[in-house]
Design brief:
There is one protein chain. The protein is α+β, with helices and mostly antiparallel strands. Helix content is 46%, strand content 19%. It has 5 helices and 4 strands; from the N terminus they run αβββααααβ. The chain is globular.
Length: 147
């Protein structure tokens, strides 16, 4: 179990130090701003669509290691999927991060690294903010918060 926790911690640290898709998309079809007033995490997400398919996604801003790595892993996962496929994973992730359900790496891949966040209630909003923001962008909403 400690080996698995170490691996998960490595994934989170790697995506925090070297976030994937940390960029603004000037040709984005949709964009949304996400803000957590309790801790100050603040990001902007950009999505380029081809019909229902997410062809590119980027984000920029600042926040804690949990929020930045969550955004990085999420954006890597979202590329190439449809909005409905993203919505399905969003629901699974939200269920896992709030402690409602547990999933293995086979089900969620690198997203399973965030499973332990549910043990720290003050960090749940950090991990879920990027998801709510991208979810909002895909729905045409310009803002998301964790309030």
């Amino acid at each position: 179990m400690n080996d698995l926790r170490d691996l998960y911690q490595e994934i989170i640290l790697d995506h925090n130090k070297n976030p994937r898709n940390f960029k603004k998309l000037d040709d984005a079809d949709r964009a949304a701003e996400g803000y957590n007033p309790l801790c100050g995490d603040h990001y902007w997400f950009y999505v380029k669509l081809d019909g229902e398919k997410i062809v590119d996604v980027g984000f920029h801003g600042a926040g804690c290691a949990i929020s930045k790595s969550s955004a990085s892993v999420m954006t890597s996962m979202a590329k190439g999927h449809t909005k409905d496929e993203f919505e399905s994973v969003f629901q699974l992730f939200r269920s896992m991060i709030t402690g409602e359900s547990k999933f293995d790496e086979e089900t969620l891949g690198k997203l399973a690294a965030f499973q332990g966040v549910c043990e720290h209630p003050s960090r749940v909003k950090c991990a879920i903010l990027p998801w709510h923001t991208l979810h909002g962008a895909l729905a045409g909403e310009a803002k998301a918060t964790t309030e």
